[in-house]
Specification:
Strand order of the largest sheet: 7-8-12-11-10-9-13-14
Catalytic activity: 6-phospho-D-gluconate = 2-dehydro-3-deoxy-6-phospho-D-gluconate + H2O
Pfam family, one: ILV_EDD_C
Radius of gyration: 24 Å
Distance between the termini: 37 Å
Shape: globular
Pathway: Carbohydrate metabolism; Entner-Doudoroff pathway
Low-confidence stretches: none
Family: Belongs to the IlvD/Edd family.
Cofactor: [4Fe-4S] cluster
Number of helices: 23
């Protein structure tokens, strides 16, 4: 194993220094909570009777205060395919807790919405702030002081970040995240994308499109493309918050069941009064956050995590910004090609070696911190080994030296690219991020007149009317956290892809999100400051020439400086209501910029 890469060490040192004051305050908080916070021994008898009244079998076992009680925080619902497998988890986990000599209770539930259902519709404007809601719900669940550890059941886009943001405020408790796994593969992702583009062009109808979508999203588990949900699992592995190699075992399998069972047993071992106490606030430190960023880059993961990871970090008193991602991207190689970065889905990724192969290779190349505290006994090295079932038992084995399929996963010696998939663009329009790992290098530089919109429905209408059949930079503004909750603009992927297929030079510039669904079209997203906050994107006018240059890391409106400085900002569209959007006004008004996490909760708390 090589020594840690010097550039990664330098970024880590910068984060440690930038975080020094806030991290010290955070560690003081969790130490204080551990020593003098609310816990079972200090609760009154009536308080405890209320806490125990809902259980029969475990009531007597809960009475001694020296026995761990695990709080289960669950994101179960059966509308969301990824969370539907959690239906029987609490029931099973209580049995496995008894095996380990401890008890477990469902502490509470958190909402879990699906961007795949709401994309392109008003509900998507609640999506980002569902993360704050989940964090607050997690805090409520853990506030009773009756738990010595917690198991977090969540897997998708805002759910894992929200669970962690809330859980880290109880950083004195040991915790483990328990995933549910991806659904089995449906139709190939390229086939699904082709049908979507055909529908955008009017070549197939709604029934053909619906057939294709149902063939792709067809069962319990996460979606199989490498978007935000599955990027979550990759990062959580690298942070040491799963048991090793838990990310992509399919629901309903023996391996998935035994990984969950082991997670409960392991949580009991790292508990409150044992000699292997591992509180989540100590596991999630500066090095763990850097490791999460590195594996995100190495796998071409979702750009949503340029918002989520800073928010998670701030909940633990750690400051990471986009410059840190940019510096890491310069030295972290791209080791995977998983859709939308390639043709394989996450099941193909798992079969070729999966997250544990990537972690093994990054460790081998000196590109991950190995001296970190994790849920696993053997530290980060344990996350570079493959979990499997042998003789009906869960075991971990060393990977082969080579990938199971080097069109999907590669070794550190022969990466797909010698740099990660993200870059930060800056210029007179603001500061944005771009995911270039799936973009042909010939399209890393786009210079074209822009067409300005304030919602994605207007873009779709202009596309259908043939108004965008030219070289064009599509600008969609008033899509930031303060404006409308920063919805993902998934619906733009097919029409922009069609325009590019027709031979036009096309790009997207927006203060909104695009997430793991961003693919072959260059997209400068999360533009900050956003239009509503006075960001210069509000000065753009139809016909202004924009130059997006991912080689030079610039994003520039080619407008004379004196004219640009004198321009007024465009009027702000009125806030929309309906679908509950009006009751989230306080979150929009209080939200931070995307680079600081886009969170009203963290901004209000001064985190």
């Amino acid at each position: 194993m090589m020594a840690l890469n010097a550039a990664i060490a330098a970024v880590t040192d910068r984060i440690i220094e930038a975080s020094r004051e806030k991290r010290a305050a955070y560690l003081a908080l969790i130490d204080r909570e551990r020593e003098s916070g609310v816990d079972r021994p200090m609760l009154g008898c009536a308080n405890l009777a209320h806490a125990y009244a809902g259980t029969d079998e475990d009531r007597d076992a809960m009475r001694p205060a020296n026995r761990m009680n695990i709080g289960i925080v669950t994101a179960y619902n059966d509308m969301l395919s990824a969370h539907a497998p959690y239906y029987r988890y609490p029931e099973q986990m209580k049995v496995w807790a008894r095996e380990a000599g401890v008890t477990a209770q469902v502490a509470g539930g958190v909402p879990a919405m699906c961007d795949g259902v709401t994309q392109g519709f008003p509900g998507m404007e609640l999506s980002l702030f569902s993360r704050d809601t989940i964090a607050l719900s997690t805090a409520v669940a853990l506030s009773h002081g009756t738990f010595e550890g917690a198991a977090l059941l969540g897997i998708c886009d805002k759910i894992v970040p929200g669970l962690l943001m809330g859980a880290l405020r109880f950083g004195h408790l040991p915790m483990v995240l328990i995933p549910g796994g991806p659904m089995r593969s449906g139709i190939p992702n390229k086939q699904k994308a082709a049908v979507r583009e055909a529908y955008a062009e009017g070549k197939v109808g709604r029934e053909e499109l619906l057939d294709a979508e149902i063939a792709a999203y067809h069962g319990k588990g996460t979606c199989t493309f490498y978007g935000t949900a599955n990027s979550n699992q990759m990062m959580v592995e690298a942070m040491g918050l799963h048991v090793p190699d838990a990310a992509f075992a399919n629901p309903g399998t023996k391996r998935r069941q035994e990984l969950t069972r082991y997670a409960v047993h392991r949580l009991a071992e790292v508990g409150w009064d044992g000699d292997d106490y591992r509180p989540i606030g100590r596991v999630v430190d500066e090095k763990a956050i850097v490791n999460a960023a590195i594996v995100l880059l190495a796998t071409g993961g979702s750009t949503n995590h340029l918002i989520h990871l800073p928010a998670i970090a701030r909940s633990a008193g750690i400051i990471i910004d986009w410059d840190d991602f940019n510096r890491l991207s310069d030295v972290v190689p791209l080791l995977t090609r998983v859709y939308p970065n390639g043709s394989a889905d996450v099941n193909g990724f798992e079969d070729a070696g999966g997250p544990s192969f990537v972690i093994r290779e990054l460790l081998r190349g000196g590109l991950l911190h190995d001296d970190v505290l994790t849920i696993a006994k053997d530290g980060m090295a344990a996350y570079g080994r493959q979990s499997t079932i042998e003789n009906d038992q869960l075991v971990w084995k060393d990977h082969a030296a080579t990938s199971g399929d080097d069109t999907i996963v590669r070794t550190i010696d022969a990466p797909f690219s010698h740099e990660g998939g993200f870059r930060i663009l800056q210029g007179n329009i603001g500061r944005a991020c771009i995911k270039v790992s799936a973009v042909d290098p010939d399209r890393w530089v786009i210079e074209a007149p822009c067409r300005v919109f304030s919602d994605q429905a207007a873009v779709q209408a202009a596309f259908k009317a043939g108004e965008l059949d030219r070289d064009v930079v599509v600008v969609v503004r008033h899509q930031g956290p303060k404006a409308n909750g920063m919805p993902e603009l998934h619906k733009l992927t097919p029409p922009l892809g069609v325009l590019q297929n027709r031979g036009f030079r096309v790009a997207l510039v927006t203060d909104g999100r695009m997430s793991g669904a961003s693919g072959k079209v260059p997209a400068a997203i999360h533009l900050s400051p956003e239009a509503l906050g006075g960001g210069p994107i509000g000065k753009l006018r139809d016909g202004d020439v924009i130059r997006l240059d991912a080689n030079a890391n610039t994003l520039q409106a080619l407008v004379p400086a004196d004219e640009w400085d004198a321009r007024e900002h465009a009027p702000v569209p009125p806030a929309a209501d309906g679908t509950g959007r009006e009751i989230f006004a306080m979150m929009r008004q209080g939200a931070s910029e995307a680079e600081a996490g886009g969170s009203a909760m963290l901004a209000a708390a001064g985190l």
